[in-house]
Amino acid sequence: MSKPAAQQSAFKQLFTEMLTQGGDFSKVNKDLKRPLKTYVKESYPFFLVTDGYFFVQAYFTKEAVAEFRSKFNNVNITDLHDRVIVLNSWSLEIRKVNSAETFTSYGNLEIRLIVNSFKPNLNERLNPTRYPINLFRDDELKTQIQQFRWNAINAAAGKAKSEIPDLARVQTASKGKVEGIVKIGSSKGDDFAEFSFKEGTTATLSLKDIFVQEKGKDASPAKDTTAVPKVKGGAKGKGKAAQKSAEKKAAGVSKSAEKVLKYTPSKSVAKKETPQKGAAGKQSAKKSVGGKKATPAMPSPGGKKSIKTTDQMSMNQFKKYLDWHEAKKGGKTIGKRSTTGKASTASGKASKRSKK
């Protein structure tokens, strides 16, 4: 039967014991203070070590870095990614931090792993069978931190009992403001500050300082995720060639728009007109844009394509139109006209009546 994660994970067992002992590392079981063999998950911009289950952030003292350089001057601390290191001397301490800025913390509390002495095992490689997660995102450890905070609040409230007013004498103001609320120490709202543990003060070197010592100020870290990207743009950021190219494109667009706006088809284009007075038997169609004569078309009543309509044509003009159309069609009939090109008697009588 496999052991629970709390016993399998060395980090989880250590950090839980630290919280149980009220944040006092001196009270932690001595059997747990043995050297730790860890796998380096990340070496820059954060030095993250894991026991195969969870990862925490390691903080190096100035003495630990100096000892490492004296013994392993050909190895950089910031290049230990995917390597195995042994923590010979280390300690734990609790710091009050802002959890919105420090991801290896919870409830504005961080348990720091302080490394005083360590060495690399360059000939040993590990293949983790699972992906380690942030220990401060483990539900059981978060519950332990909440319990730690609750105990601290109870202790602070117990010390302030003499300052608590008699509830029977608490007066309520007219504006709904309750008087007599007790404030514990320097706490502000949910930001409780009256912890009874002794906060750690061990000085450590930042990974950025270690990187500069190892590779110099001019070296650019390959994995510096803290760097803020710079955006360059505007007229100053563009060269003369880029400006000319932009102006050329703008000019081309304006010319195309000008051509589209100037192109307005004339009303006379592709228009057909019927022969008028004085043009009997002759074709009086207008020329098209290309110089060719447009073929006249029959006017349709109410049509919008022709300016002249049948309502404006007299009977004399209509007869001329019929003669023109007959000559155009080669003697074919339209309406009640005979095949010989002569109008029928009925149509002739109708035309005489219309004249009268």
TrEMBL record:
Residues 245-261, 320-329 have a biased composition (Basic and acidic residues). InterPro entries: NA-bd_OB-fold, TEBB, TEBP_beta_dom_sf. Residues 276-294 have a biased composition (Low complexity). One of its GO terms (cellular component) is chromosome, telomeric region. One of its GO terms (molecular function) is telomeric DNA binding. It comes from the Eukaryota. Residues 216-356 are annotated as: Disordered. Residues 336-348 have a biased composition (Polar residues). This is Uncharacterized protein. The lineage of its organism: Eukaryota, Sar, Alveolata, Ciliophora, Intramacronucleata.
